[in-house]
Amino acid sequence: MQFNIKARGSMRMALAAAAVSAVAVAGAASTAQASTPVVKISVASLLPGSTKAATAAFNAQIKLFEKQNPGIQVTASTYQWLPATFAAKLAAGTLPTMFTVPFTDGRALGDANELYNLTSLAQSLPYFNKFNPAVIAEGTDAKGQVVAIPEASYAQALSYNRQLFTEAGLNPNDPPTTWAQLEADAKQISEKTGMAGYTQMGASDNTAGWILTTVTDALGGRMESGIGAKAKATFDNPQAVQALNILNTMRWTDDSMGSNMGLSWGTSNQAFAAGQVGMFISGSDVYTSMVQTDNINPAIYGLAPIPLAKNKNAGVLGGGTLTAVSAKATPAQAAAAVKWIDFYYLQKYVNRKDAIAWAKTEVASKQPVGTPEVPIFNAKQEALYNSWIKPYINVPLKQMAPFTKAIFNEQIIPEPEAATQAIYGDLDSVVQSVLTSQGSNPSALLAAANPTGQASIKSGT
Fold first, then answer.
1. Which residue ranges make up each domain of the chain?
2. Structure confidence by residue, pLDDT tens digits, 426-443
3. Do domains 37-154+319-397 and 157-318+398-459 have the same CATH topology?
4. CA separation (Å) from 9 to 38, 72, 297, 354?
5. How would CATH label the architecture of 157-318+398-459?
6. 301 contacts 287 by C-beta, under 8 angstroms
7. What span, in angstroms and rounded, lies between the C-alpha atoms of 374 and 406?
C-alpha cells in the first residue's frame, strides 16, 4: 500500500551520432531546437522532507534526462500518495503529469477513466514482454488497457533494531520467527531499554487496517473472499481475531508498545530511525525511505520475514508502486512522461551500462543501492540486474539476510482485490479501539465492522 519514491535514473547516451561529422550534427541540432516545441511535464519526485543529498541526486537525473531529450522540460514535484488527499488532488487536477499510485489503485482508476491509456506507449518499450506478468497485471484495467507501469514491488517484512536487541540481551542475528517469540522479544526490549518493543500502525489513514490485514494473512486468514462486486467481507475470521488478541496482549498486558498508538507509515519510519522502536511491520523496501528522509544509522537496521503461522494459507502480503500519467495530459506529454518513466525508473533493470551508471551515481550521493525488492521483471532479468549492481551495493545486506533468505520460499498474498483502500479504512477503527480501549472485544469489533466492509465492496469504493 504505502511506498516511497526512490532516486533512480538512466545514464544511456545516444551513440548513433558518432558516425556523423561534427558540422552536420551541429546543424541538425540547431534545426531541431528551432523547429521542435518544448513539451513541459511535471513529475513526482521525492517525499516531502527528503535530505539535500537525495534531492540533489534527483535533480541531477532531471538535468541528464533533459540533456538526452532536449525537446522535453521536466519540473519536479515533491509527492507522497496519501489516501486522505489523493482523490481530491486528482479531481482538482493538481497532481503532476506523472505520478505514482499503489498497486491497489491502478485498475480502479483505469476503469474510471482517470488515468491516461498508456497501452501503445508501454507496449512499444523494448522490454515490455519481460515484465513479471503478475506485476504488469496490476496496471492493466478491465478492458486490457495498460493504464500504469510498475516501478517497484515489495513484500511486507519485519524491520527490527539490532542495537535495541543487543541492549535487551537478545541476539540481533536471531530475529523472532513465531508470534510468541515476537511478543516475548518485544516485552524484553521494553523492560530492558525503556523503548517500545513493538509498534503497529494505528492511524486513521488506512495504515492501521493495512497492517491488521498483513498480520491476518500471516496467520492464514483473509479479510475478503472472492473478487469484484461479488466479493464478501470476512473481517470476523478467526485469524483476524487472533491478530487483534496478540495486539491486545502486547498493548495492555505486556505494556511493550510504548505510548504512541497513532503511528502512520511516515511516523513509524521516523520513530524507528530515531531508535525508539524495537520492531515494526512495513514494506521490505522501507529502508530506502529511512535513509532518504529519516537519517537512519545503517548499523541499527535489521530486516526479517514476518512470522508465519503453521497454516497452509499463511503468507506474506505483497504490494507495490505503479507509475501513471494524468488523463488530462496531451499525447505529447504522455509520450514524454513514458520516456521519463523509462529513463528514471526502469532502464537500470534492463541495461547493464545504465544499471552501473545509476549505482555509481547513487553511491556518490550516499543513496541506498541494493534494498531488497520483489522483482518487477522476470527471474532471468532480475538475476542480470543483481549481477550488474553487485559491486556497488551499499545497504547492510548481511543485516537483511533473514528476510532475503526466506522471502522467495514464502507464499505472497495479494492485497484484497475489491475496494482495497476502503476495506483498510473500515478496519482502522477496529485497530484503534484495541489500542486505546482496555478490555475491548476483538471478535465483537470485527463482527460490527463487517457490514461496513460489505457496503464498501458493494459501492466499489
1. 37-154+319-397, 157-318+398-459
2. 999 999 999 999 999 999
3. yes
4. 21, 16, 25, 8
5. 3-Layer(aba) Sandwich (3.40)
6. yes
7. 12
Read off the C-alpha cell for 404. Answer: 532475503
CATH no. for 37-154+319-397:
3.40.190.10
Q: Kindly list the distances between the CA atom of residue 4 and the CA atoms of 44, 81, 266, in Å, as whole numbers in the listed order.
A: 11, 9, 10
What is the CB neighbour count within 10 angstroms for residue 166? Answer: 13
Question: What's the grid cell of residue 156?
Answer: 511486507
Q: What is the pLDDT of residues 296-317, one digit of tens each?
A: 999 999 999 999 999 999 999 9
Which residue did the predictor score with more confidence, 420 or 263?
263
Q: What is the pTM of this model?
A: 0.80
Q: Which residues pair with 99 in a beta bridge?
A: 324
- pLDDT band for position 282 (cuts 50, 70, 90): very high
**Angle value at C-alpha 146, between 118 and 383, nearest 5 degrees:** 105
pLDDT in tens, 13-61: 222 333 333 334 344 444 444 456 899 999 999 989 999 989 998 999 9
Distance of CA 353 to the CA centre of its chain: 26
